[in-house]
Prior knowledge:
Blueprint: E1 2-10, H1 27-39, E2 46-47, E3 56-66, H2 72-80, E4 87-95, E5 107-115, E6 128-129, H3 136-146, E7 148-151, E8 167-178, E9 181-188, H4 195-207, H5 213-218, E10 238-244
Parallel strand pairs: 3-10, 5-6
Antiparallel strand pairs: 1-3, 1-4, 2-3, 5-9, 5-10, 7-8, 8-9
Helix pairs in contact: 3-4
Amino acid sequence: MKRIQLVVSYDGTEFCGWAAQTGQRTVQSTLREAVRRISGEEIEIVGASRTDSGAHAKGQVCHFDSEVNIEPEKWARVINKLLEPDIAVLTSKWVSGEFHSRFSAQDRFYRYRISTGVRDPIRSRFVHEYGRELDIPKMQTAARALQGDHDFKAFTEELDPGVENTRRILYSLEVRRIRDEVWVDVVGTAFLRGMMRRMAGALLETGRGYRPVEEVGRLLGEERNNLQWPVVLPAKGLCLMRVRYGRHPKDNRT
């Protein structure tokens, strides 16, 4: 039995997210079926991040165990032959049996894209089309309040009953203008359900003048219950860019 790591890219528009759901097309079930057709094994594929329905990935990482004797680099090629054009395995390799795509991850890098220009059908599947100018300096000031170790309860789309701890660490949160887009780049240990989309929503509200800059930081404390929580922006503007692991991956839950 060998453990295979895959790095996967996908346009999430036609997927109902990462996690397998009965009767729905998801990234996890699509990859699992492709491996089953190749190896004949009923395997489980574990992903680093449970991306939302409609969200995209350039660097999703997942793993599975197989007894089939296929060279590790060949897994990507044979799986890709069975996949639709909106998903591809970029790389495949053997990893230690102690490696875990989710729990060994040191951090995850997400990008949320907001278009401030004219609607562009070529990229409309990958950006939130706001279509007006935003105050970037205000957004950058608000973003600084979100960096660090905080309770992000007010930034969840839906609190998972199984999640008791809503504290997360954000190593960096950068807001910048790229041509007629605003990119919100966030690197953190892990993210709550809908957290990236609600953080981007809070920054958009600040940039358009609907929310005072200082109020974003107040959402991290007990005052949150007296404030209007941020809007959740559409999933199509969100992309998982990269998942980072150390040289000797270990379980980072401890």
